[in-house]
Amino acid sequence: MEHVTAVSGEPFRIALESFGGAGYEWRLRDEAPGLRLEARESLPPEAGSPPGAPHDVVFTLVADEAGAYDVVFVLQRPWEAEPLQERAYTVDAQD
Predict the structure, then answer these.
(1) How far is CA 42 from CA 7, 9, 77, 85, in A?
(2) Residues 8/66, Cβ–Cβ less than 8 Å
(3) pTM of the model
(4) Distance between CA 35 and CA 23 in Å, rounded?
(5) Under a CB-based contact definition with an 8 Å cutoff, are residues 30 and 87 in contact?
(6) % of the chain exceeding 70 in pLDDT
(7) Which of 24-33, 36-45, 81-90 is most confident?
């Protein structure tokens, strides 16, 4: 599990490398109460990259109060039941 430090009430970002050209998408699987998703943004691949090159997906989240929150992201094709990969984070939100 990876750790992220955040300030309660302030947006923070988690960036994950995506393989969109193969149909895989990162999505938020488990969101703790008090931790909310503000935005999900797919950044374009670097200039000159071949078609289907990996790119970053950035999730912007906000912890409503100070505390520890667990959040899990999954890399999955929408039509498949099992994810290819999971990334789990513990968010330590401080005042």
Answers:
(1) 24, 23, 16, 18
(2) yes
(3) 0.87
(4) 27
(5) no
(6) 97
(7) 81-90
